[in-house]
Structures are given as structure tokens and as C-alpha cells.
Amino acid sequence: MTPFNVFTEDMFSAVTLSAAVDKLFYVPTYLQTLAGLIVPDPVRTEVIWIEERENVATIIPFSPRGAPPDQVGGDKRVARAFQTLRYAKASRITAAELFGIRQWNSEVALKDVGTEVARRQSKLLAGASLTKEYHLLNLVTQAKQLDAAGNTIYDWATEFEQTIPNEVDFDLDNQSWAAGAILKKCRAARRSIQIGLAGVGTASRIVCLCGDAYYEDLTTNPEVRNTYLNWQAAADLRNASKEWSSFIYGDIEFINYRSTDDKSTVAVNTDKGFMFPLGAGIFRQALSPGERFEHLGQLGQEFYSGMVLDDDRNSWADVELYSYPLWVCTMPQALYHTKRT
């Protein structure tokens, strides 16, 4: 059994690899674990259609008896098509890397090579997890679909002719605030978000992703401090994280978002707080099927994994990971931006 004959075994088929990829260790990141954030929409095509409908109540005018009633027209609907996107990554296993684990005509070779393939899949998944977190963060803070370089592909506020409210100064570094001033700003934020939803859903919870300086000033502000200390004492009993914690004030959950260590790849500006609703269904992830023949007509799934062999020289094999998503914010006007000073 030559080193690369093992890759023709059933255990390395695209279907088996795609199924196995979900069983491997997946790097945890906050937004991906936030219950109620994303509604998945698997589709069978590369194009998704989004329909808008006006359903606005109006005041009915008075009319004299015997006059015909005021007419209500049908709903105005607009449907537009958007293309799902594709990202892919591969990790090459060379023959030289396998010489040390190859055993002639032995099942051990299959097991060892399988372990190496799983390790490569795990590394690819770590990158895919970071990629997904990057796109989710852009979605909930900017209502945009960006590429890896930060260029805008879709600006959902522009696409749906909506406006994200102007950024609000919470003035958190002011230590001489009147009692209840921050609470009033929290209430104004909640009202803006609920009005911005325009009846498409009701927020079960409102979250604010906070940069480090924003969170520090918030939790040390005299108005908020007692609430935070009581919440933190309860968190200590739960053995919760003290470095990147969260608490609720003014019916908003403030979360000190842990950015990547470089503070730039996936990060919240240190002076900002970004609020958005959970449970209202405004953040959606379309998933198109893969590119192989066996994917035709199937609903899209989160990831596809496969393997490409070197047919010419039989000296390498690429473990590949593909995904075909599109992240959409249907109500950008329900987002709310704040700053500390």
C-alpha cells in the first residue's frame, strides 16, 4: 500500500470528510455561540431573494355618511436577488511528511494518515471560525458584508434604504453625572431599537458589545458601579471570567468583547459600544450548496470538506474546506451605536 493509495479509501471520500468536519474541535468565539443571533437559511441555489413589504398603519380620515370609504391599497413589495459568496482554504500533506508513519500493507497506516487529515481539518476549521466571527462582527456592528480586506460587498442599510441612527455619546468618563443619566440613555437606546425593528420581530434581549476602555469607564461610573459589583459577586460564585466579563444594566447586557490579541483582525474599537437585538430574526445566514456533482439540488450546509490528490506525481494531497454563505441584516435601522466620550 503506497503512501497515497490510502487516500483512495472510503474514509477519505468528500462525503465522509464533510460529515467528519463537524465532529472535530471547533474554536469557540462569542458571536457564534450567542443564542438567538443568527437565523440559518440553507438554500439550493447560488442566489437568494429578499422580499421587502410595506405594512404601515395609517390614520383613517373622517368622511361624511353615505360617502365611499377610504381605499387601502395592496401591500407594496420589492424582491431583489443577492449572490452568496465563497471562501475556501486548503492544507497540503506531502509524501515526505508521511514517510515516517507509513507501514507497508497495514491498517495502522490508514489510522495514522487519518489522524493527520483530522489535524489538518481542525486547523482549517480554526481559520473558518475566525472568518465567521469576522463577518458576524461586521454584520451586528455595521450591517455590512465585507471581504477579508475590509472592502464593502453589501451595505445592507443602503440596499434596504434604511439609516442606522447617529452614534450617541454615553459620556462615560464623566464622573459627575446626575443620578440616572446613564439609565435614561439605556432606555432611549432600547426604544430606538424596538422602533427600528418596525414590527418584523420583538427583541428578546438587547446586547451591547463593548470595547475595553468603554467597558472600564462604564463599570467604574458611580451610577453603574454598585450594580456591576453585585453582578460581579454573583459571577464569582459562577466562576465566570473576570478578564472579559458581562453584566446587565438598564435591561441591556453589556459585554466586554474579547478581540483578537492584535486588537485589529477581529476587534471592537476600545471606545465604542455596539447595541443590537437578539431573537428578532433580523440577522440571517444563507448557505448555498457546494460545487461538486453530489451537492446539486441539495440544501447548503455550513462546511464542505474534500481532498485533491496529485495525479501527475503522486507526491501530495490537499485537504480542503469550503463554505458558501451570505450574512444579511434585514433591519439595519435597529442597530444602535454608542461611544464612551
Secondary-structure topology with pairs:
Layout: H1 14-20, E1 39-42, E2 47-53, E3 77-83, E4 87-94, H2 95-98, H3 107-142, E5 144-146, E6 152-155, H4 156-159, E7 168-169, H5 181-196, E8 205-210, H6 212-220, H7 222-237, E9 246-249, E10 252-256, E11 272-278, E12 283-287, E13 304-309, E14 316-323, E15 325-329, E16 336-339
Parallel strand pairs: 1-12, 7-16, 8-10
Antiparallel strand pairs: 2-3, 4-14, 5-6, 8-11, 9-10, 11-16, 12-15, 13-14
Descriptive account of the structure:
- By secondary structure, this protein is of the alpha+beta class.
- It has 7 helices and 16 strands.
- The protein has helices spanning 14-20, 95-98, 107-142, 156-159, 181-196, 212-220, 222-237; strands at residues 39-42, 47-53, 77-83, 87-94, 144-146, 152-155, 168-169, 205-210, 246-249, 252-256, 272-278, 283-287, 304-309, 316-323, 325-329, 336-339.
- It has a 6-stranded mixed β-sheet with strand order 7-16-11-8-10-9. It has a 3-stranded mixed β-sheet with strand order 1-12-15, with helices on one face.
- The longest helix has 36 residues, at 107-142.
- It starts with 13 loop residues before the first helix and ends with a strand.
